[in-house]
Amino acid sequence: MNLYINYLKQTLLITVPLSLVLSTSACSFSDSSESISDSTSSIISSPSSISGKSKKYQNEIADYTMAYVKSSKPSDNYTNFLKGISDIAAKKGINNWEQDALTYMGIGKGLKKAGIEGVAYETYKDNFAGGSAQNREYIQNGYDSE
Question: Which of 81, 86, 80 is nearest to 110 (CA)?
């Protein structure tokens, strides 16, 4: 009987601390994943919290957009503009710039820097967004943030 009680004591001494460590780790992981999720949401919703590298990319897009619209008309063909955006993105290692919010926010900032307003702004915004309501919203956010 004494041998059985000693076995139970040893088992409990190992099992209880181990289960505490595992449950604490699970809580920590859960808290970490929520924190990561919260951070991601705030980055998406708050352009001011983007990284320096992303900010530099967005500013390059803005400068390129400003230069382009100052030397073109809202009704021009956008093939050259899109090629220029693609080239800037490629240099920054961005493969899918067409789905990147920072690209369109940079376009919006560039339109604002160029002083484009009214019908011309709406025309550029429609054409640059490529028919996407989400891209139009990103352009507007960039325009409003400048």
Answer: 81
pLDDT on residue 14: 54
- 34 against 93, higher pLDDT: 93
Sequence letter at residue 80: N
CA distance linking residue 135 with residue 3, whole number of Å = 73
| Separation of alpha carbons 53 and 69, rounded Å | 24
- Closest Cα to residue 61, out of 42, 26, 87, 27? 87
CA distance linking residue 106 with residue 59, whole number of Å:
6
Using a CB cutoff of 8 Å and minimum separation of 24, what contacts does 81-85 make?
81/128, 85/61
Average pLDDT on 83-100 reads 94
This prediction has a pTM of 0.65
